[in-house]
Design brief:
single chain; 545 residues; alpha/beta; 22 strands; 6-stranded mixed beta sheet; Urease, subunit C, domain 1
Length: 545
């Protein structure tokens, strides 16, 4: 297993440089007494830094930095601990993660949780339902069918053991499969005659009746039963999420939502002193009309009245689902076929109308949006590469910085395409640990599994990759991301793709300098150098260093 590392993440985004300025007035703080890793290749290490009014003002030798101080300057001795740029989350779901902790039964399997069989899953849901008798829906999340002894999804019959009078809705650990009990299906109006929605599948039992398992976009039929969060619920979820990200050394979190009003909830949390990190959010919509309701099309724009606390990032698209949920879209069949797959199942696209998808991507590109697209299977990745390419040919743009999220089963030839298009990946590197054994031995076989999240290949093609945990899917943990990038070791101790291992510095760059660059924030974050923001977020009550 990975070793713990003591790191102080002072900078919300900063990098090394020689001392470039002297001041007539003293500065607020200086940091010294431990390794300072700036993430700036030209000067990777420094002895000390100076901070004033929420910015790094000088980086250099301890002697030079001390010369800027006076008796009023706070001197912070690192006592041998490492100071480096604060981690930047390139892909997460902060509010949903907070909500999951606060209001859903934790159905995680080991090593993240304790659910190992269907009886344990049902018991967890019953306990949660009994503890929340007034909840309109009994909710649970993060179960994994491949780590349950029965090796299957729960069905409506299983969830009926929890309740027959209240809807019960649970979500797979991938987020791309949703299951409901009989009451939930009844309330959602799902019957044997209900047609599969665009980009979704309704699973049926031997009698042709819906068995409760809803794949891909079909899950929305059940999720609509969940009452809308109150303002108090939103603020509580933000507060919990903020605590989780800050505790893991992150100074910038990520969230994705379709309602721009949620921006106001984050601003309220900041004003109340309940938000201890910065935020980059992504509009997640499927129409131009919905996109137009957000404040800007320009990624990297500060929308927090000049405080640099909330930035709008790229618009989020989804082209397929999850490999471990059998909803990712591949050009070749899954190695292990389920009983109902007829031997050639490859997953499916979440956009059945390819022409409509290409048209939407072209329009967004034309209008100046940066786009980031969820794509796991190699066919999903190919679809979005083709769409980006078509958009660029029709409406050429310099430095669009479109990205692909997860990009797990990127083929070698697709890395070449990414380089040609200046499209960069953000890899869900934790799959090598959490699901590596099953990708190799169950889902896809050795050749495909060993090329998942090809970090080394991306670097060899001069791409600027990042890594993420997709929290709530796996715990927010920057050290885990670095460890998995370097070692690629699974839960069984197997190495998943030794040829794609990278060195620790490149792994650290993936969640600092690279992450800042991917979303047009390299001028304020990612390295330790003069002019970059420090970790105090410009508000004295929000100290997180």
């Amino acid at each position: 297993m990975r070793k713990s590392i003591q790191i102080i993440t002072l900078a919300s985004s900063v990098a090394v440089s020689s001392l470039i300025c002297s001041q007539a007035i003293a500065i607020e703080q200086i940091y010294f007494g431990g390794p300072i890793v700036t993430m700036k290749d030209s000067a990777l290490f420094a002895e000390a830094i100076a901070v004033d009014e929420g910015r790094i003002v000088a980086v250099g030798s301890k002697e030079d930095i001390e010369a800027l101080a006076d008796d009023a300057t706070e001197r912070v001795d690192l006592q041998g601990k490492t100071l480096m740029p604060g981690f930047i989350d390139p892909h997460g779901h902060m509010m949903s993660a907070g909500t999951a902790v606060l209001s859903q039964a934790d159905l995680n399997p080991p090593p993240m949780g304790k659910v190992t069989d269907m009886a344990g899953l049902i018991a967890k849901l019953k306990e949660h339902g009994d503890s929340n008798p007034d909840a309109a829906v009994v909710r649970g999340s993060r179960y994994d069918d491949t780590l349950i002894a029965e090796n299957r999804h729960p069905t409506r019959e299983d969830l009926d053991q929890v309740s027959t009078t209240r809807p019960v809705v649970v979500t797979h650990i991938s987020g791309h499969v949703t299951v409901g009990n009989s009451k939930a299906l009844e309330m959602a109006g799902v019957t044997a005659e209900t047609k599969d929605p665009d980009g979704g599948r309704i699973a049926k039992d031997a009698n042709g009746q819906p068995n409760g398992v809803m794949e891909g976009n079909a899950g929305a039929l059940l999720r609509k039963l969940i009452p809308k969060d109150t303002k108090e619920d939103e603020l509580a979820a933000i507060r919990k999420g903020s605590e989780m990200w800050a505790a893991a050394g992150f100074t910038t979190a990520n969230d994705q939502f379709g309602d721009p009003a949620i921006i106001d909830a984050y601003k309220k949390a900041i004003d109340d002193g309940d938000f201890k990190v910065r935020l980059t959010y992504w509009p997640r919509v499927t129409t131009i009309e919905a996109a137009s309701k957000f404040p800007t099309v320009k990624s990297g724009t500060d929308v927090s009245e000049g405080r640099n606390l909330i930035h709008q990032g790229p618009l989020k698209l989804v082209i397929d689902g999850s490999p471990q949920g059998y909803t990712a879209h591949f050009s070749q069949p899954y190695m292990t076929q389920r009983a109902h797959d007829h031997g050639d199942y490859k997953g499916f696209s979440y956009w059945d109308d390819r022409k409509a998808f290409f048209s939407f991507v072209k329009r967004l590109h034309r209008d100046g949006w940066q786009m980031t697209t969820h794509a796991n299977g190699d066919q999903g990745i190919q679809d979005i590469l083709d769409a980006y390419s078509a958009a660029q040919r029709t409406y050429p743009r310099n430095d669009a910085r479109h990205t692909i999220q997860h990009a797990q089963f990127t083929r070698p030839d697709q890395l070449v395409q990414m380089a040609a298009l200046n499209v960069n990946p953000s890899f869900f590197i934790g799959h090598t640990f959490y699901w590596g054994d099953r990708h190799k031995n169950v889902f896809f076989g050795k050749a495909r599994a060993e090329h998942i999240s090809p970090m080394k290949g991306a670097l060899e093609h001069k791409l600027i990759p990042t890594t993420h945990t997709d929290t709530w899917v796996t715990p927010i943990d920057g050290i885990q991301m670095i460890w998995s990038s370097v070692n690629r070791v699974s839960t069984s101790g197997d190495t998943i793709g030794e040829g794609q291992r990278i060195d620790p510095l490149d792994a650290m760059k993936a969640i600092t300098v690279n992450a800042a660059w991917q979303y047009f924030q390299e001028d304020i974050k990612g390295t330790i150098e003069p002019g970059k923001l420090d970790a105090r977020i410009n508000l004295a009550r929000l100290v997180i260093s």
